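Lab channel / #folding
Pinned by the channel admin:
"Please post every new chain as: sequence first, then the structure tokens as a reply. Keep commentary short and put observations after the output so the thread stays searchable."

First post following the new format, from NK:
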Amino acid sequence: MALEEKIDDLLYDHLQKKELEKFNKKLAKITENGIAYGIPNDLDIMLKLTPPLDILTPLTRLFSVQLMT
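Reply from TO:
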């Protein structure tokens, strides 16, 4: 039983790491043109902005709004 449990633990850790990498790639792609928020490692809501954030960031000084990038 100990060997089976060890293999299961290693496989679970590997799959969890792979899912986290996939999530981080998806999150990076979303945050290029939008805002994503939710709990860590779990995306709840995504707001897609028509103009990219690099265009909007200078405009935030005019309206006293801060965007986190």
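NK: The chain is about 60% helix and 20% strand.
TO: also worth noting, Residues 2-63 form one domain.
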